Amino acid sequence: MAEQEVILHVEDLKMHFPIKRGVIQRTVGYVHAVDGVTFDIYKGETLGLVGESGCGKTTTGRTIVQLYKASEGKVLFEGKDLVRLKGEELRLMRRKIQMIFQDPYASLNPRMTVEQIIGEPLLVHSVAHGKEIRKRVKDLLELVGLNPAYVDRYPHEFSGGQRQRIGVARSLALNPDLIVCDEPISALDVSIQAQVVNLLEDLQKEFGLTYLFIAHDLSMVRHISNRVIVMYLGVFVEMADRNTLYENPLHPYSIALLSAVPIPDPKIEEKRKRIILEGDVPSPINPPSGCRFRTRCPLAQPICAEERPEWKEVEPGHFVACHFWYNTKTLQRR
After folding, report:
1. Is residue 117 in a domain?
2. Do residues 292 and 245 touch, judged by C-beta distance below 8 A?
3. The Cα angle at residue 267 between residues 261 and 273, in degrees rounded to 5
4. Residues 4-31, mean pLDDT to the nearest whole number
5. Domains of the chain: total
6. CATH no. for residue 35?
7. Which one, out of 36, 86, 248, 267, has a CA that is 20 to 30 A from the CA of 95?
């Protein structure tokens, strides 16, 4: 594989939310939502980020686009650390990184027309004015498969799939290089999900876009992504290209997740071993020592409680954080 250009480099990113109590709002603890993640996104690729609800996927995406200010770490885009940018400098960089939100019902202002919603970024960044905005909005609506005549309608007049297309159009308004897609299809009907994913793929080919695609639908992530990261309780546990991860997972959590994905072949499905994880996900307020997954891991040993496993490249392009990654094949044979 040829050397690829890194468009975004995230290094040891942490996002800890303070817990405040009492009249004087004293900090009594922290929610360790994201706890030291490092990765690169290559230009033109789709990087998938998967994990169960509450693991920190959305927080990672929002911290990258600076909707949350990181507690620690670096987010390097075009050589600049977004975490340390403020004011005008950050505003200019935001033109190049946009976000598609999960809930198409909550992410569009019900008091604004489609023209105002999609045109707002153009106005804020002084890219277009007056009639130019209306023309640009109509072009964007056509681009995402909506009738340009809808410019004067309000969000309540659209279905969920149409609203998400409006959200996609808004994210494209400033011609960004990177788009963070925060579970853009999870609130939609299954039939509509495929349409939105196909739209995202077509737009990527046409404009050379780069995506961070956050989701919990493992089948869809495999379809759309070039590489996939698996996240658990604020940390990354495995990263590889999509085929390697799905055919040869090395972390016990990845193996358990993938064992739950149905295969449309009754003969193969009958022979597969489903791995049921015991216990609940620990609280991010007081995460386990050492390996975060050890409280539910069938391979856990005393060292797992004492040392946090190193995030290392065990095969070319295949990263894993597990003390016993070389022994995980035994799980699949049980």
Report:
1. no
2. no
3. 50
4. 92
5. 1
6. 3.40.50.300
7. 36
**Cα distance between residue 254 and residue 245, in whole Å:** 8
pTM of the model: 0.91
CA dihedral in degrees (154, 156, 162, 163; nearest 10)? 80
User: Which of 15, 27, 35, 40 has the alpha carbon at shortest distance from 313?
Assistant: 40
Q: How confident is the model at residue 332 (pLDDT cuts 50, 70, 90)?
A: low
Domain that holds residue 328: 6-96+176-333
Cα distance between residue 35 and residue 259, in whole Å = 26
Provide DSSP, 242-268: HHHHHHS--SHHHHHHHHTS--S-HHH
Sorted by sequence, the CB contacts under 8 Å of residue 172 that are 6+ apart come out as: 98, 140, 143, 144, 203, 207
Determine the pLDDT at residue 262: 73
**What is the distance, to the nearest Å, from the Cα of residue 73 to the centroid of all Cα atoms in its chain?**
18
Half-sphere exposure of 204 (CA within 13 A, CB side): 22
Sheet strand arrangement including 97-100: 97-100, 178-182, 210-215, 46-50, 227-232, 235-241, 318-320, 312-315
Cα distance between residue 152 and residue 157, in whole Å: 10
Q: How many CB atoms lie within 10 A of CB 22?
A: 8
